[in-house]
Specification:
The protein is 26% helix and 20% strand. It is of the alpha/beta class. It has a three-stranded parallel beta sheet with strand order 1-2-3, covered by helices on one side. The longest helix is centred in the N-terminal third of the chain and has 9 residues. The radius of gyration is 11 Å and the shape is globular. 8% of the residues are buried.
Length: 61
């Protein structure tokens, strides 16, 4: 699978950075870190709180 077809679910800023560097899109899971701790950018397609089952199904279709 090519990186541009991947969606990474990540809860650490360094993991989000690694996914960005690999050319992958990221859904941030805020567990130990607040939204403000993540560098904004087009690689972040949202935070887990924003997602519903319907939206996730659409992303993976």
């Amino acid at each position: 699978v090519s990186p541009d077809q991947c969606i990474v679910f990540e809860d650490a800023p360094k993991g989000v950075e690694a996914a960005k560097n690999a050319g992958m899109k990221v859904v941030v899971i805020t567990t130990m870190h607040r939204k403000e701790e993540f560098e904004p950018g087009p690689h972040i397609i949202g935070f887990i709180d924003d997602y519903t089952d319907d939206l996730l199904a659409e992303l993976f279709s």
